[in-house]
């Protein structure tokens, strides 16, 4: 598991990679700005066959993510 920041992780299991709760926006929620950029950018990510969204906060499903 690699922590990307906020609630985002990149994981690997059995040679396959997956992304958990992606957040790449400059804010986390309506009122909370991000103090540090994500540890990885979208362009840094490898291709992956699975995405897990554990909760429906809009910042996990924004256009940047």
Short description:
0% of the residues lie in helices and 28% in strands. It is mainly beta and 65 residues long.
- Rg value: 12 Å
Strand neighbour order, sheet with most strands: 1-2-3-4
Quick one: biggest sheet?
Answer: 4 strands, mixed
Helicity, as a percent range? under 10%
Using DSSP, what is the number of strands? 4
The assigned structural class equals mainly beta
Task: Give the key terms.
mainly beta, 65 residues, four-stranded mixed sheet
Q: Can you give a write-up of this model?
A:
This protein is an all-beta fold. Helix content is 0%, strand content 28%. It has strands at residues 2-5, 8-13, 16-20, 50-52. A four-stranded mixed sheet has the order 1-2-3-4, with no helix packed on it. The radius of gyration is 12 Å and the shape is globular.
Q: How is this fold's topology laid out?
A:
Blueprint (H helix, E strand, L loop, with lengths): L1 E4 L2 E6 L2 E5 L29 E3 L13
Parallel strand pairs: 3-4
Antiparallel strand pairs: 1-2, 2-3
